[in-house]
Prior knowledge:
The chain has about 425 residues and is of the alpha/beta class. Helix content is about 45%, strand content about 15%.
Amino acid sequence: MSELTTLVPEYAEAKKLENDSKKTATKLGNDIKAEFANQNIDSFSAGGYTVTMSISTRDEMLEDKMIDFVKSTGIEGIVKTKEYIDTDELEKALYEDLGRSKTEAYLCDIGPVIVEINETIRGLKKWARPEKHFSGLMCFPSMSTTVYKMPYGVSLIISPFNFPILLTLGVLTASIAGGNTAVIKTSSKSAASTKALQKLIAETFPENYVTVIDGGHDVADMCLAQRFDKIFYTGSPEVGKHVLAEAAKNLTSVALELGGENGNWCIVRKDADIKDAARKIAFFKLCNAGQICININQIAVAHEIADSFNEALKNEFIRQIGEKPEENEEYPKLINDAAYGKCEKLAEEYKDRIIFGGTGNEETRRFAPTMIYPVKVDEDIVKQELFCPLLPIVPFKDDEIDNLMETIADREHPLA
């Protein structure tokens, strides 16, 4: 509790921010003034004060603070300020945690954040504008209803290791746009990214608006034991259940973005463009070494073209990453020793059916993209989310596609 208490602003500072909210509230009409002015929420400790943000404050946070934050990271890109930015502090952290090359770091994590910030800046005032609706006969004698977009209050953002920048700052952008303050609990697995985010956010935002805390499951549980007003969680379904159960104790609204309990299928029919399919599948599977919740977990390929497809996919892996991916500095690595060990153990179980890959470097935690063929549709390896470079391939008869689709539909739905 003492750790979180330090994050609470002093009463005097809170009252100053409260007065700013009052000024903004006058524009919304007398019926909502008191509501907007009384946005102090006792979330961290008894007697503590936090405030939500007015439209003008959100604008300032996004246009000035968030852009300053992006600039301070040294991202190479164009942001709303139209200024060109040099080398990247976050890219170094992503390389240390996940072995990402500069290109992949920008493509997967950093670039999308810039797009989200710019889109939010453009749309903020429109999105926050009150809406008028016909009340309906059930609300007679009222004929018109005005809906005001009110902030939740203090948000808790629990972000994952696999996209530590995008799934932290992207959610933070939305939280700020909604007028909320935020406590960010980053993943302990991506330590370098957490350290970079802590430093940069502390230098950019007042801590009573946004702060980052580090730690493992014990710290996450400590956060969940507090009463927040909105919780965002990205991660596994199992932990998602725990987050939802803890939030239910305070009836806290929760947004869950979860991986699938079954992995995502990619189905290649007999009339598919084999080379094009192989090129796209190889590219996506190589991204982040398969540690993506919407990545291709397994392939179902029509038996009629299976040999041609397998050969094309091998060639694409070699063309895109080389014959020894585990020695390629631009190929990402698995997040920790446990993830590498799990991948290696599963590959060992299917070593007799590996037709490409199956090799790795335990020291660098790079494991080659590994094609496993043939695999039956009811084997355990295609009933779980792998989250690694292993790629089981299930042959099927093209004229029995309906049976395959029914089998997939009967299982827990994947994320994509």
